[in-house]
Amino acid sequence: MKKAEKIIQTAEKLFYKHGFNGIGVDVIRDESGCSKTTMYKAFTNKENLIKEVLKYRDNQFRESLINYVGEDKGVEAVTKILKWHHNWFNQPQFNGCLFVRSLAELRAPHKDASAIAIEHKEWVRHFIYEKVQGASKAHDLADQLFIIIEGQINIHLIYKDNSLLRDNLMGQGVRMIEILMQEW
Question: Which residues contact 145 (CB under 8 A, 6 or more apart)?
Fold first, then answer.
């Protein structure tokens, strides 16, 4: 593995766990085993490192979701999209959405990072739309599904220590999706 890749992967894990503002380049350097010179040669500053981390995370996300859903369309595709997210929510290291976190922590001074995060969310919306094309009001349906999935990400993060409430709220989200799916 190249040193830059090691730095990106290390930074991704640290940013995901502690936030962008909670981790400095010295911690990333120490955890990755690379020198500060190597880090700055590869990324020049923390902002560029953050952009590369978000691009890396986006690529990993897209590849994983595309492979999981495959060529399915309609109800089968939506079911797989939900199942993929459910699997993500139940990983021990689940800590919400890194893209939302980047928007919350970095928005004003980090316009490029914000643009990557927004582009990621737009890709998710478009991916859902592609999978429900053919349904009546496919754009509306895709937006509604997107809103429910985004809500489920936050519900799972907020209530991860209250499984009864979390599971009830997640179940309500699934029921809402089932109702939407019956309409087309």
Answer: 78, 81, 128, 132, 177, 180
